Amino acid sequence: MEREKILPPPLTKPPRGGTFVQDFKLLLKNQMRVAWNKFRYRPAGPLVGMLIILLFLGAIIVSIGSFAYDALKLMSPDIAQGALSFLFMICLAGQVFFGITAAFAALYMSDDLELLFVAPISLKVVFAVKSLSVFGSSLVAAVMFIFVPGIFLGLVFEAGAAFYFLVLLVGFGLSLIGMAVAELINLLVMRIVPPHRSREAVGFIGALGGILIALVFQIPNILISGEDELNIGGWLAGQDQALRIMDFFPWGWGSNALADGITGNFLSGLGWCLLIILMGAALFMISFALLERGFRRGFISLSQGAGGRRKKTTRSVVQRARRPQEKFSFSNNDGFSATASPLSGMWAVAKKDLLYLKRDTREWFGYLVPLIIMAFFVGQYFMFPAGSTRASLITVLFMYTVMFSGNMALQSFGREGESEWLLNSVPLGGWPVVWGKLLAAVLPTLLLMEALLVGTALAVGMSSSLTLVLALAAVLLSLGSSAVGLFYSINNSRYNPDSPQQRISPGASILMYLVNLFFIFLLSIGLVYLFPPAELVAVLQVFRPVTFERGLISTITYVLFILSRPLLWQASLRIMLGLIVTFGVWSVFFFGFLAGTVRQSRKGFRVEIVSGKKKSRGKKLSGIDG
Amino acid sequence: MENVLIQTIGLTKRYGTVPVVKSLNLEVRGGEIFGFLGPNGSGKTTTIKMLTGLLEPSEGEVFICGYDIRKQPMEAKAMTAYVPDQPRLYGKLSAREFLHLVAALYRVPKDIIQGRAEQLLDMFGLQDRADELLEGYSHGMRQKVVLASALIHQPRVILLDEPTVGLDPASARQLKDLLQEMARQGVAVFLSTHILEIAERMCHRVGILKEGVLIAEGSTEELRQKVGHGGESLEDIFLELTGSQENAELIESLGE
Questions:
Q1: Which residue in the set B89, B91, B104 is minimally distant from A26, CB to CB?
Q2: What are A577-600's pLDDT values in tens digits?
Q3: Residue whose C-alpha is closest to residue A364's, from A189, A203, A193
Q4: How far is CA A195 from the centre of its chain?
Q5: Interatomic CA distance for residues A222 and A389, integer angstroms
Q6: Is residue A130 within a helix (H) or strand (E), and if so which, with residue range?
């Protein structure tokens, strides 16, 4: 038999183990091969996308660099040192928050961990190699907030070559600290959060990190809004005490190192750098020491799903199956039971979605974003009050109401994921399913947006009648844009098991936003008839009549002129037209898109399953319930 | 004790306070194919993961080729091969690259790796697609790659978790021949399955696990004789483990 020749005899004793360095090199080489293969076999489209993102990042880095250069030129060395402390602190925060998700993916979610854990190699080697990818994730932040400002600082103050070495060490040291802290937080998360919720917890932390970064990027805007021009130096000069406190933290040591490097005190700068690196190494060693419990157990808990939540079974499957008559006897005496109202089916669909929203913390994040962004705008209104801010605040709130409602509805059908068969197979296709979905999408959104709109209106001191109008408008806007969102959801939903929160194709998402913008535009015409702005009416009264001529501009001007005429009508006629236009537009959008959704629901909806680069269309269903 | 390559003493695993495997005592000798039978959720995978060192037991000990998996994990792992129920592989490596990686991880000398990898690729019929990325492989082909990688370092103990899942009848037959050949060479084969007929046709001896407890051990023939005399529990478990019609073709291919 051929196999007898091929199969080598089994080992009699284990081979000699490799050193840490040997194993590390082996795994690193493998990681690099995987990365190279990923690059080599990637289709052209994503590569072009990556190139565009790189160019975009490059542009950001260049603009940050030029901004840093201009800002540094105006600063004294002391103030520049404070600015660096501030930047390094932001960098470290970003590295930690982004590092948490990167560490989670690398340390617990990698496909190769089972293979590596059963292989005769030290766990520390696996941890060290996986940590490298976490380290890599912090490099972008390091480039933007450490290397670029550091290099420009050197250029401004004409520092020597040794200074740039210090920049390198500071960047390395702070990144090491960021990575170690991210890994430690990850280990902590794996200890305190039940395994079946850790994906949610880490996703949540990562998302918060994203918001934090987004808000940090708003700081220059706040400074500009407050003082008409951006003057970081002036702002920092008033923060002496805060800057002194920074000296007790690694970001302060980093700026001290560079400040010493600028003044030619290289050895002192090197001392600060070593302190940072030592701290990073110490934190990394602590995570190394804790990894035995956190790293492997975390992976195992996750791969077992709800490990530790197993319920004790008292009767075997066969025991249960053997007594079907006892457990599942059907009575023939009840006769035919009446068909339940479709309302109960609708509520069942809504309840399912609402429970899903409640139980998956990643869903909460969707609601958290507008809250934080709005809090930001409200805060800006109070910090820098200006005449135009109130109007812009209301506009922003309206825009968010529409976009947010539409966006939440856009997730509805994609949420079904691989369970789409259920809603497609139950005899509820059509209105019950769509009303149920609408209810689940609108209820939490509406509550939140109403609270926000009314709360904001009261906070900025609007009249009660205007607050009432805003509350009513929020209901209409929310329902209308949710109907648009549902329509695009049922036709373009997708599901990626690796990224279950992405539930819609990007094209459909953009299209929905455009349609919603058009919806706002049409609705605003009716609202202007109802509540005509005095300034606009005054302008219209002195406006000369426009006649129709050929050409695009002329047509647009003429249409706008015609649309503006009712503003000069008698109040009763104008209000009546306003009511007709407002509710007409709303009805057309709301019922039109809802009817389209119902039609598709009756035919059967599909969720496109996306996995890696492969896509598979869910089966197109037809004929279900009509 | 002689030639006992897999030994567990009072092996217990608890998730929180819930015991999943309860005081398991097992011995598998070299040259033996041991079938670890039990319905889904009985604790088979948990036991195998403790044998591989992936899971820490709550109590008890595991010895592989005489090495304590907790105290001498490197030695024990070097002598073992593990074939998981889900063949998770590097999607961005080719089958050939993957075999080279596993061989290096298990310290196969460099001058041997190339030849042995080619032989295994050939043996499992993977030669034609050996340079394609594993992400494009079917479940059955991935399973073959895992099996090939399990053999590359000449293991003395092989642990297989539901290895027939996803295999076509021809591949299942090939697996049986392969395991028998390994056993002939003195390897201890530990194979988990939830289908009685598969164990019957592939294994020399079986142990039946029910709710974490080893309720019976012996050849399937011996166990069948006990049915009717061994209490309701064994009868129930035999009913549960009997393969359904969908496995009939695969079972048929395994022959006697």
A1: B104
A2: 989 998 999 999 999 999 999 988
A3: A203
A4: 22
A5: 13
A6: helix A123-137
Q: Which domains does chain B have, with CATH numbers?
A: 1-79+163-256 (3.40.50.300), 89-154 (no CATH)
Angle between helices A161-192 and A250-262 (to 10 degrees): 180
Q: How far apart are CA A438 and CA A444, in angstroms?
A: 11
Q: Side chain identity at A98, as an amino acid letter?
A: F
Cα A518 to Cα A236, A403, B69: the distances in Å are: 44, 12, 67
**What is the C-alpha separation between A544 and A147, in angstroms, rounded?**
60
Which element (helix H / strand E) includes B14?
A: strand B4-15
Secondary structure in 3-state letters for A277-305: HHHHHHHHHHHHHHHHHHHHHHHHHHHCC
Q: What is the pTM of this model?
A: 0.66
Alpha-carbon distance A195 to nearest alpha carbon in chain B (angstroms): 12
Distance of CA B92 to the CA centre of its chain: 26
- The Cα A196–Cα A302 span in angstroms is 7
* Contact (CB<8Å) B15/A307: yes
Which residue numbers in chain A have pLDDT < 70?
1-6, 68, 193-245, 292-340, 361-362, 365-366, 368-396, 497-501, 611-626
Helix (H) or strand (E) holding A441: helix A431-459
Q: Amino acid identity of B205?
A: R
Q: What is the DSSP string of B93-110?
A: SBHHHHHHHHHHHTT--H
Of the candidates A3, A114, A119, which has its C-beta nearest B105's C-beta?
A119
Looking at this protein, which amino acid is placed at residue A378?
V
A187 within 8 A of A103, measured Cβ to Cβ? no
Measured between CA atoms, the residue of chain B closest to residue A13 is B79
Question: Do β-strands B188-193 and B80-83 pair in parallel, antiparallel, or remain unpaired?
Answer: unpaired
Residues of A in contact with B41 (CB under 8 A): 313
Q: How far apart are CA B240 and CA A95, in angstroms?
A: 53
Interface ipTM > 0.90: no
Residue A550 CB partners (closer than 8 Å, separation 6+) = none
Report yes or no: B66 and B79 within 8 Å, Cβ to Cβ.
Answer: no
Query: Which pLDDT tens digit goes with each residue over A599-611?
Result: 888 888 888 877 6
Q: Say how far apart CA B73 and CA B84 lie, in whole Å.
A: 19
Q: Which letter does DSSP use for residue A306 in this model?
A: S
Q: For chain A, what are the domain ranges?
A: 37-303, 342-529+583-616
